[in-house]
Amino acid sequence: MDFEILKQQIEDAAKKAFLEVYEKHGAEGVYSFALYSDEGAMTVCPAANTIKVLETADEEDALYYKYEPAEWTYEMEGADEEFNEICTQLRAELDQHEDDDQWFEGFQAKLYSACIEVLEKLKNENFFTKITGKDIFLIFTVSDYEFEMEELKNLVVRLNNNEYRSEYLNWMATWGN
C-alpha cells in the first residue's frame, strides 16, 4: 500500500468531513475534530463535537466528554463515501497479509502515523481556524486502546498549541488520582 496516496485520501476525507459537519452544526460551536482508527487498523473515521452538546454533559465528567472522541456527538459523520473507501482499502490490504504479525505491526504504525500527520498538516495550514475563526482541539485516537501517558501527552502537544492543550494536560495530571 502506498501510504503517501493513503495519506492524501485521508486528508481529503478529513477536510470534507469537517466542512460537512461545520455546514450542518457550525452554529452549535464546533470546537473539536479527531481522526480515529481501531487496533486492527481496519478503519479511519472522523469525529467532531460542539460547545452546545457539551452544555448537556454531566458536570462531574465534563472534561471527559469534552476530550474523548468516542463520546462526541458527531462521530463517523461526514465524507461517508470517502472514509468507507479508505476502510475498504485497509481491509483489502490486511486480507493479503492475514498471518504476518510483523508486517501488521509496521502497517498499523504507518496508518496511525499517517492520521497524525494529516491532522498536524491541517493544523499547520490553519485549515480549521480559517473555517471556524477560532482554535480547534485536535486528537488522534484508537478505539478500545489506551496510549501510554507520555505518548498521549506528546500527541496533544504536537496537535494543539492553544488553550485546549493546557486544559487537556492539566486534566491528564488528575488521572489516577
TrEMBL record:
InterPro entries: DUF4303. It holds the Pfam family DUF4303. It comes from the Bacteria. This is DUF4303 domain-containing protein. It comes from Chryseobacterium rhizoplanae.
